[in-house]
């Protein structure tokens, strides 16, 4: 197996909803395992997600889980998830879905370096950066 660098998101009880939302945005195969699936069927957090992984046809891998009991979560810090490429329609589609019901800190528009770029925080508190470059000739 190749070594991969993947964003891993932590949630305070809404990992299932967030990961299902990201599957709607990006498509692909979503695997969700709850604490109950890992032998804690009687625990109060049995239905919470211990590990989730979304693998998309575009090659993205996004992982996430609910915080274990007793651990605090600070959504949105200290990272961003970056999407970049030159497929305008694909990236705009992601932008529209991610920014819907979220907040936009930098509108998706042409920047000084020539690409279109925007920053938003989705409705689950995850910050995203989208950069649409010019196709290479």
UniProtKB/TrEMBL annotation:
UniProt source species: Streptomyces purpurascens
Residue segments, region Disordered: 61-82
Alphabetized InterPro entries for the sequence: Glyas_Bleomycin-R_OHBP_Dase, Glyas_Fos-R_dOase_dom, PhnB-like
CDD domains recorded: PhnB_like
Gene3D superfamilies: 2,3-Dihydroxybiphenyl 1,2-Dioxygenase, domain 1
Protein name: VOC family protein
Domain of life: Bacteria
Annotated ranges, domain Glyoxalase/fosfomycin resistance/dioxygenase: 5-129
């Amino acid at each position: 197996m190749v070594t991969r660098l993947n964003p891993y998101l932590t949630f305070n009880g809404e990992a299932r909803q967030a990961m299902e939302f990201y599957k709607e945005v990006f498509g692909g195969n979503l695997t969700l395992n709850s604490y109950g699936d890992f032998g804690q069927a009687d625990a109060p957090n049995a239905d919470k997600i211990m590990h989730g992984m979304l693998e998309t046809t575009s090659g993205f891998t996004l992982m996430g889980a609910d915080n274990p009991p007793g651990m605090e979560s600070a959504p949105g810090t200290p990272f961003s998830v970056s999407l970049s490429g030159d497929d305008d329609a694909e990236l705009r589609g992601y932008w529209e879905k991610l920014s819907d019901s979220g907040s936009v800190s930098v509108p998706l528009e042409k920047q000084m370096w020539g690409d279109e770029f925007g920053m938003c925080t989705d409705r689950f508190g995850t910050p995203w950066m989208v950069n649409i470059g010019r196709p290479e000739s």
